[in-house]
Amino acid sequence: MNFTKTTEQASKYEHLEKMSVTDLLTNINNEDKTVPLAVEKALPQIEKLVTEIVSKMKQGGRLFYIGAGTSGRLGIVDASECPPTFGVPFDLVIGIIAGGDTAIRKAVEFAEDDREQAWKDLQQWNINENDVVVGIAASGTTPYVIGGLEMCNQNNISTGSISCNAESPLSKTANFPIDVVVGPEFVTGSSRMKAGTAQKLVLNMISTATMIQLGKVKGNKMVDMQLSNTKLIDRGTRMIMEEIPVSYEEANQLLNTHGSVRSAVDFYNNNKYK
């Protein structure tokens, strides 16, 4: 391969096993501090992908993440957090991992090396031209992810990627590549560290910016969040009190009756003069 695989380069630290706990934590933290700066350099690429996702979702499309290992797990985490945070259907943002759901907790040997499986996995969801598929791979070389994006390209489905190696094969495959080059890891080759952190930051940006653009946030509040526990019900109740002149008890009743902050406030505003 004629590109620099920085995620596999040797750590700039030696003899880790001889370091004190304080030194280990300090050095890891120092490396972690560099990650947001690497993400900042990729903001123009992230913007292009988010713009494409928003456009497709307005046409009824969905967002898919595909990845293997840590990258696949991070995609699943981001996808699974969208319904409770923004009140969207569970199948609007979908995370798929090489090896299937079993691989979330236990590595499935050689699953990432199957170049054809990602497309088969996507077809289970009746993938179509309105959707966007984002391949996640720190190395930018994972066959499962690259093969999936290649098939999407052949079927006129928009593709994005998140890699931590510039000009990787994955980046060259995607229509909207994102390269966050974080450099060598503290533990050589352990891309669950800085690379994983970088991917998580980018995924946060993609899903959050997309949902805001789609109107799922009002002001700075999650007005469509699912009321799945006592903490969120209390938060929603207080959000209603900030929007309209009602007591805690009245706000709580409105929330329980109408199911979301947005619906409760809209109902009040539409009926207060009747």
Features:
274 residues; Rossmann fold; 2 domains; 11 helices; globular
Briefly say what this structure is.
This protein is of the alpha/beta class and 274 residues long.
How many alpha or pi helices?
11
Query: What's the average pLDDT?
Result: 95
- What is the N-to-C succession of helices and strands? HHHEHEHEHEHEHHHH
Largest sheet: 5 strands, parallel
* Overall number of domains: 2
- What is the CATH class designation of the largest domain? Alpha Beta
The helix/strand class is alpha/beta
Distance between the termini: 70 Å
Strand order of the largest sheet: 2-1-3-4-5
CATH homology superfamily name of the largest domain: Glucose-6-phosphate isomerase like protein, domain 1
SS strand fraction: 5-15%
**Number of beta strands:** 5
Question: What is the CATH architecture term of the largest domain?
Answer: 3-Layer(aba) Sandwich
Quote the CATH topology of the largest domain.
Rossmann fold
- Unreliable runs: none
Can you walk through the features of this model?
- The protein has helices spanning 21-32, 35-41, 43-57, 69-86, 117-123, 143-154, 169-173, 194-213, 230-243, 248-258, 261-271; strands spanning 63-67, 93-97, 132-136, 158-163, 176-179.
- With 274 residues, it is an alpha/beta fold.
- It has two domains: 6-213, Glucose-6-phosphate isomerase like protein, domain 1 (Rossmann fold), CATH 3.40.50.10490; 230-271.
- A five-stranded parallel sheet has the order 2-1-3-4-5, sandwiched between helices.
- Helix 2 (35-41) packs across helix 8 (194-213) and helix 5 (117-123) crosses helix 6.
- The protein is globular, with a radius of gyration of 21 Å.
- The termini are far apart.
